[in-house]
Each structure stands twice: as C-alpha cells, then as structure tokens.
Design brief:
By secondary structure, the chain is of the alpha/beta class. Helices cover 31% and strands 20% of the residues. The strands form four sheets. A seven-stranded mixed sheet has the order 5-4-6-7-8-9-10, sandwiched between helices. Strands 1, 11, 12, 13 and 14 form a five-stranded mixed sheet that branches. A hairpin with a 5-residue loop joins strand 13 and strand 14. The two termini are 29 Å apart. The relative contact order is 0.15.
C-alpha cells in the first residue's frame, strides 16, 4: 500500500485556500492534515502558478480529478534551470543558485519570503537535533563558501549565529585550525556538530585522524570533482574510522527545496511533517511505486508554496513504510551538483 493513499474527497471539501491558511504548513502534526494541506496547495498552485498550470494542462490532467497525493503532477526539477518559477505576482526576495559544474546551467530558486525558509530549517533542525543553542557548529563547506547564492550557506550561517557559541564558525581551507578546534572542544565535552561536504571531510581526516567522543559528523554529500565518487557505505566507513565515531549523520537538501531531510546514520532519511517523499516509476513517470521499490524520487515540500512544492528529482531511491527513505543513486547522464549527490 503506497504511503498516504487516501481519497481526499471522502474527507475534505476543497475551497480556494486563503493566504493565511497556506502558511499554516508548519502546524501540520499528522498524516491527514498533511494530505489536506498538500491538496489545498496543489489547487493554489494550479490557480496561481502559471508555469505549473501549463505543465498540468500539457499532461492532460484535470485538476478537479486530483483526490490523492499520488495523482499530483510533479514538476521535473530541470525546470528550475530553464524557467523563473514563482507563484502569483510575488517578487523574489533572494535567488538561490545551485553550484553546478563548469559549463552547466545552474538551477535558480526564486524565494519570495525568506522567513518561510528560515522557519523551515529552524524547525526541521529542532525536530531532529533539538535546540541549536546546545551546539557549537563548525562548518567545512569550502566550495559553497567560494560562490554566491548557496541556500546551504544561508542556512548554516543562520544556525551558526543562533548557536550562540563563540567557537562556532566556517572553515574554508584551514584544516589545521579546524582540527585543533575540534580536538579542544571535544575534550572539553562540548556538544559539537561538524557539518561538511564529503570531499572536505575526507581531506580533514587525511590531514589528521581523530578519536571524537562528543562530536556529530554530518556530511552533505558531494565530491564536486575533487575526489572519485563512492557509495555511501564506503564513504561512511572511511569517515567513521577517520573521526573515531560510530556513525555519520547526513543532510539531504537542494537548491530547489526549502526543507531538509536528515539521517542519524546508515543513510536512512526522515522528513519534517511538511515534507514527504514518493518514488516514481523510471519508465512511467506518473506511476508511484510501493515501498521498497527503487525509482526516481518525487518530493512534496510545502515550504515551497511560493515556488513549486511538487518536484520530480533525478535522485534514485526507495521509501519505507514508516515514511523514511534512502538514496541509492542518480539517473545516468545527469549533472552532479547540490547538497547531497543531487542532480538536475
């Protein structure tokens, strides 16, 4: 049985949602409310987002026939490269850009309300890790710091400031300084979160081997052409040994989304209540697969209410009955980019 297989017309009567209703996404506490809000926002999107409406119409989908989440059309993520995706007559407050690779076109996420993004990543972090003020946050994200428009840097910068720790901060290429800080804080028993892109974390343990007791290591994926690609199990095994920890945490996010999923180990990701992942058939894009089957990941991120909350990524993965999911790869011939082996 596919997760969230529920006929909405039996439970809900659709009316055009008011603006204040749209922003109640962070009050979602259960499955039924997520379904109700998602279907409301689908109709809002069809009414206000001209690009999404054209996409739905070109598929020959009657919006009034949509009464389950599985029936919602998911916009291919590549549209963020070729179109300015924004709902209604909103004006962008900030544009986030994917890192891309040399010669590729970056994705553009036009964000009309940064407060929504900020609330999303604050509440998401709190749900999975508790108060950010409990942590010292050390960030090793060199390739993101070296360019403008990174949504990951925007998030981590805010979390660093909210940590209230004088030791929190970004490290560009100062592996020696970071290693010294990491050892000192860990020995002091401080609760530390080291978040880093995969190749930079590997560079750090090549520089020095650690034996950490009070530090969480969180990888955001991505070799960015600096090292050979490797499967998650191999990467995490190397990082566990190098940092002297029992497990590696992971963050799953991307330029085109305003919410993040987190893994506390073993590559099993959980989402906040306003976000959910489905798996689609790789040959028949409108067909949603049951749990355990591998296919392309479709993501509902209701924080994207003013861009597009229904996105068909080019990540390959599978879902589980409890709502968690795994990343198992990506489609062939895709650009390598993003926060966690993400593709366009």
């Amino acid at each position: 049985m596919v997760f969230y297989q529920l006929v909405a017309s039996k439970y809900f009567t659709f009316v055009a949602p008011m603006e204040q209703d749209i922003l109640q996404i962070f009050e979602i506490k259960n499955k039924d409310l997520f379904i109700k809000k998602s279907l409301q926002i689908f109709h809002y999107q069809y009414d206000k987002n001209l690009l999404y409406r054209d996409f739905v119409d070109l598929l020959g989908v009657n919006p009034n026939s949509i009464d389950t989440l599985e029936q919602i059309p998911f916009l291919p993520i590549s549209f963020f490269k070729s179109h300015a995706i924004i709902t209604g007559h909103k004006k962008e407050e900030k544009t986030f850009l994917s890192s891309g690779t040399t010669g590729t076109t970056p994705s553009k996420h036009l964000v009309s309300d940064l407060k929504i993004y900020e609330k999303s990543f604050r509440l998401g972090f709190y749900q999975f890790y508790g108060a950010v003020s409990d942590y010292t946050i050390l960030a090793l994200l060199p390739n993101y710091l070296e360019r403008k428009g990174s949504s990951l840097i925007y998030m981590v910068d805010h979390l660093i400031k909210e940590s209230k720790s004088a030791d929190s901060g970004f490290y560009l290429h100062d592996l020696k300084g970071l290693a010294k800080k990491l050892i000192k804080l860990d020995k002091q028993g401080k609760k530390v979160l080291l978040i880093g892109v995969s190749f930079a974390l590997l560079d750090l343990i090549d520089f020095l081997q650690f034996n950490l007791k009070n530090t969480l290591i969180m990888e955001t994926g991505g070799m960015k052409g600096r090292r050979k690609e490797m499967i998650r199990e191999e990467l995490h095994q190397i990082l566990c040994k190098g940092f002297g920890v029992g497990k590696i945490h992971s963050e799953y996010g991307m330029t085109e989304l305003l919410s993040q999923a987190y893994s506390h180990g073993n590559g099993i990701f959980s989402t906040p209540p306003w976000m959910h992942v489905f798996v689609r058939d790789t040959e028949e894009a409108q067909r949603i697969l049951p749990n355990g089957k591998v296919g392309g990941l479709n993501i509902i991120d209701l924080a994207n209410v003013y861009s597009c909350p229904f996105i068909a990524t080019q990540d390959l993965g599978k879902t589980h009955a409890n709502g968690t999911f795994e990343i198992v790869g990506r489609f062939d011939n895709s650009d390598i980019r993003g926060c966690n082996l993400l593709v366009v």
